[in-house]
Here is the input.
Amino acid sequence: MAGKTDQVKGQVKEAVGSLTGDKDLESEGKADRRAGEAKEKVGHAKEKVEEVIDKTEDKVEEVIDKTKDAVHRK
Here is the structure.
């Protein structure tokens, strides 16, 4: 969510800077917007990594359970 907020904040600064001719504010807005985009991408990547970890944990537990069952059958 912070990424989207930074993007919107950056867009507003860019627009105001462009309308007023304030190149510094416009540049600051671009930087804020890009930082927001980066935060959003990092957030998506983090979610994907967490999904992979969860799936891996489930598979490991499944293998452990199958191994225990196989050992107990002997």
